[in-house]
Amino acid sequence: MSSFPEVHASKHAQRTLQPLTELTDKMKPSHSTKPLIKLSMGDPTADGNLVAPQILVDEMVDIVKSKDFNGYPPVAGFNDARQVVAEYWKKFCGTPGRKDQIHWRNVLLTSGGSHAIMLAISALCNEGDNLLVGAPAFPHYKTVCDSYGVECRYFPLDAARNWEADLDAAAKLVDSKTRGVLFVNPSNPCGSNYSRAHVGEIIEFCEKHHLPLISDEIYAELVFKDEVFTSIADFDTDVPRVVLGGSAKHAVTPGWRIGWLILVDRKEVATAWMKGMDRLAQLLTGSNSIGQMSLVRALTKIPQDHVDSVIAQLEEGAKVYNRLLKHDIGLSFDAPRASMFIMLKVDFNYFKDIATDMDFYEKLLDEENVQVLPGEIFGVHGFVRATTSRPARIVNEAVDRIIEFCERHKK
C-alpha cells in the first residue's frame, strides 16, 4: 500500500512570515542566569502598570451580562460603533469642513489594527504591484505585502530629523505599478511625531504622484507633553486617505481586538477601494461584538486623565534611556516624542566583535538576557528597537545590563 502523498501549503501561506513572532516567540535560550527582560514587547498590558480605563471595563461587563450582543455583528461593524468612531476621529480635525469629510459609512470595524492593515493593503494592491513604505516601519506592513505578492518598497526616514521621510528618495521608487504610500505616525518603531508641515509635505507628494495614502495612526492619543498630533484627515486635499486606528494602545486593550479604518475621500474617487475593503472583511465575518459595543458606550467618554497617566508613564520609561547617553558606549538616539518605542542607533565602529544589528540583538540576549529587536525587521540596518512601556525600574535594570554589555564588547 502506498503512503499518502505530502500535503503542501499554498504559496500564499508560504509567503507569509511575521518576523516579530519569529523572534519574540521562538527565542534562542540565553546563557545568562539573569532574569529575562523583554524590551521587545508591544503589549502595553504586560506589567500591569498600564490599564484600561474603568469606564470601558464597566461597560464591557454590563454588555456581557446583558447577553444582547452574543450574536454575529454586521461585517462592517455595528452602525452605532461606526458612527462613534467617525465622531471620535473628528476631534483630530480642526475645521467643520474637514470634520464633514469623515463619514461613518466609510468606517469599518476590524479585528485589531493588524486586520485593518491587511484590508487596506490587500484591497488596494494586486499581486505584482508595489507599495511605498517609510522605513523604519512596523513589520506587519511587509508581512502583508509579502503574503499577497505585493512588493514592499522601503524608502528612508531620517533619524537626524525626527525620522521625517526622504520624499526625494521615495519619488525615485514610483513607477506604473506603485499603488500607494503607507506611513505610521506617531511611529512604531521610531517614537516620532510628525509636524503638521511634514504631514503636509507627504500629502503634497501624494497629490503630485496621484497616489492614495494609508496612515497608521493608532498612537494618535499617545503624544508626549508639548507635542501635537496631526492626522492626515485634517487636510483639504483630493487625495483619498485611509486612517488606521484602534483601542489597543491608548485604551490599553490590545486583546479585545478592536481596530478600525476610515476612508477620507472628498471627491469620492476611491469608492471601489472602500467596497473592496468591505468585501474582504467578509472573510472574517466581523470584529468582536461586545468590544464594539463597549466602544459605542465609552470611546468618546474616556477621561483625559487616564490618557495623561498612560502618556506620563511612557515618558518616564523613555527618559530612562537618557542614561545611555552619559556613557561612551556606541549608542545614540533621537529622543521619543510619542508612542511606546525608541530606536537606538548602533555605532559598529565602537565594537570589536559586533558588526550588525542582528549581532547586537543575539549577543545581548545571550549574555545579558535582554531582548531588543534588530532594525532589519523594520527595514533598516544599524538600529535596535526597545520599548518605553515597561515600568521605569525594569527599564533601568535593562539599561544597566546594556551598558555593561557595550563596555564588554568595545574595541
From TrEMBL:
Cofactor: pyridoxal 5'-phosphate
Highest taxon listed in the record's lineage: Eukaryota
Entry keyword Transferase: yes
Region (Disordered) location: 1-33
One BP term from GO: L-tyrosine catabolic process
N6-(pyridoxal phosphate)lysine modified-residue sites: K249
Keywords from the named record: Aminotransferase, Pyridoxal phosphate, Transferase
Keyword Transferase (UniProt): yes
Aminotransferase class I/classII large domain mapped to chain residues: 35-402
GO molecular function terms noted in the UniProt entry: L-tyrosine-2-oxoglutarate transaminase activity; pyridoxal phosphate binding
Protein name: Putative Tyrosine aminotransferase
Species assigned in the record: Leptomonas pyrrhocoris
